[in-house]
Design the sequence.
């Protein structure tokens, strides 16, 4: 294998993200509970509104905040108070300003890999917030380029690689999301390393088709990434590699 | 002058944008009026909240919608109803799904210029919404590259030009906003053509320092753009050009 360029996802690959969404949902649940709302019913409805709104709002914290506000009105049948709405605005802003908490080994993995590989940061969501997190993370200097896309599709990866004149065959993507980081990249002829996260949004979980699984590897933690990529580079593509191949993650 | 690459702003340069914000504010005013709020006072407060929130939410319709919701709670002192909040969510979604209305001459100007120049579309805001508008505009095919940035600063232009290996001296930016399209580009050694828009957000109006004014030109309409750029290319940089030089716009 002749991998040269390496792409990294950011949210839940380099730093904590999903936990902030879960914590916000817990605060939102407490608000709903104060209106006597059944939380089991409510949670399904919130999920539904959130996914439905992706087509208009895209991915990110503002999208999430607007969906929670819509859900609050919907679930309370309009009884939500101005004070309740303020609480949702506040938890949205708290998510935006939350400290960037790096995952263990992020800094070292990037430092090791960037000496031999041009690194790309490829993330989806709201650019203002994503750029702010990248700056505050202290990790910007390891990356040749930062790409923020509305959604991670085969087309969006193809455009990024074309712009950098990178052959898919020489590109490896590292991330926690099978849907966004792994499937689109291997579907276009690249390689991927899946690092499962403790918490992953269920919307980001998909099945990798059997014929593509040989292009997907799995490592358990960022600390294992650089040594694993070294062994990959020394290996053929058609024999078993030291780490187990990923199934559906 | 040896201009080769041409950048275009999109909102209020190629298609109608500010009018949608004004119409949304009119709907919002009607909502506030139904609570007996003094609109003169309210408008100042809404502007203040909107500009204050740019640091967290960035530019775009979701940012605007979240600011209106915050303003609705603030100005009604929490009396806003769930139904009122729904109206704000609805006007936000209406803005996102609004038909893209091209400004007169947009299609032809791009068709003419793209035969001799690589064109870049450079816009700020929420990528999901901006990409959707670009696709729906039918103008995507004229552009070599689309760049969506969180804010239009000298640094963001410098990064785009570096990535395309374009010398600032050979780059010309076309747009309606002195703050976002004109000043940062001429400040880094590029050239700019200002096409004033009927409506411009007051936040986007700045003074161009006298020493930079010789790098800024003004044309009245998109239909005059391609002929004007032709005359520019045939001219020196130190004599008066056929169109008047822009002052502060």
Sequence:
């Amino acid at each position: 294998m002749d991998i040269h360029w390496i792409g990294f996802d950011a949210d839940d690959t380099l730093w904590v993200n999903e936990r902030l969404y879960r914590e916000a949902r817990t605060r939102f649940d407490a608000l709903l509970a104060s209106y006597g709302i059944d939380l089991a019913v409510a949670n399904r409805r919130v999920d539904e509104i959130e996914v439905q709104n992706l087509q208009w709002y895209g991915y990110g914290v503002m999208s999430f905040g607007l969906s929670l506000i819509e859900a609050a009105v919907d679930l309370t049948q309009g009884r939500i108070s101005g004070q309740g709405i303020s609480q949702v605005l506040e938890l949205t802003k708290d998510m935006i300003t939350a400290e960037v908490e790096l995952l263990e080994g992020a800094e070292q993995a990037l430092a090791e890999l960037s000496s031999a590989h041009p690194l790309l940061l490829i993330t989806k969501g709201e650019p203002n917030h994503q750029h702010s997190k990248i700056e505050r993370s202290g990790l910007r200097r390891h990356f040749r380029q930062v790409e923020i896309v509305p959604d991670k599709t085969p087309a969006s990866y193809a455009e990024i690689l074309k712009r950098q004149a990178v052959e898919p065959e020489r590109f490896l993507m590292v991330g926690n999301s099978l849907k966004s980081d792994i499937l689109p990249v291997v579907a276009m002829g690249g390689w991927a390393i899946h690092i499962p996260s403790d918490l992953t949004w269920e919307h980001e979980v998909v099945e990798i088709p059997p014929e593509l699984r040989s292009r997907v590897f799995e490592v358990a933690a960022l600390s294992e990434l650089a040594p694993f990529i070294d062994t990959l580079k020394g290996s053929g593509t058609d024999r078993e590699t030291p780490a187990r191949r990923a199934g559906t993650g």
User: Anything to note?
Assistant: The first strand of chain A starts at residue 5 and ends at 8. Chain A touches chain B through 38 residues (CB under 8 Å). DSSP finds nine helices and six strands in chain A. Confidence is low (pLDDT under 50) at residues 238-249 of chain A.
